[in-house]
Chitobiosyldiphosphodolichol beta-mannosyltransferase (Camelus dromedarius), 210 residues
Amino acid sequence: MAVSCVAFLALSLSLPLLLLVAWKRWRWGRAARHVIVVVLGDVGRSPRMQYHALSLAKCGFSVTILGFSNSKPRDELLQSDRIRIVSLTEIRRFAVGPHILQYGIKVVFQAVHLLWKLLCREPAAYIFLQNPPGLPAIAVCWFAGCLCGSKLVIDWHNYGYSIMGLVHGPSHPIVLLAKWYEKLFGRLSHLNLCVTNAMREDLVENWGIK
């Protein structure tokens, strides 16, 4: 009797674990050929990310593009049965309050909205992100990847903080904060691409990103 109770207890404890492992394997099997491409901007005006999506689709991946739908993407994207475009809601700055408050509200909204969209998608092997803009996208995509088992790939077009520096000045506190953020979370990516050899060398030497 005691042996039967112990066996039943062991089975009761191990069954949920076995089901969890089986569920995760099933989810990962579905994720292995799926990629989420994130553009925190207008998809139609992001030709490089459109080409990435097309290349991935031609390699047999199913691709979900998250981005703003302000202009029409390439016809090949719209006609592909492997590519799905999911629109993100774009929020404009409020007309009241200091600029720093307006920007802060926009960043918080984008972070929550992007995370929700990522978690509502089919599981993906990779989250492919265009940077800039990386605030708050890098941190959100990394966090979503941790939750869903996805690897983060960043395509570095430029540095977001340097673009902000053109508006606010390189020594502005928000620019320094953006540089710290971009450097910190950029190092958490699994894979990285960039547009020039000069940028690749700068990422390696000054940011520790290969």
Observations:
- The helical segments are 2-31, 47-58, 75-79, 99-119, 137-148, 160-168, 173-186, 197-207.
- The chain has a mean pLDDT of 83.
- The CA atoms of residues 93 and 103 lie 7 Å apart.
- The two ends are 61 Å apart (CA to CA).
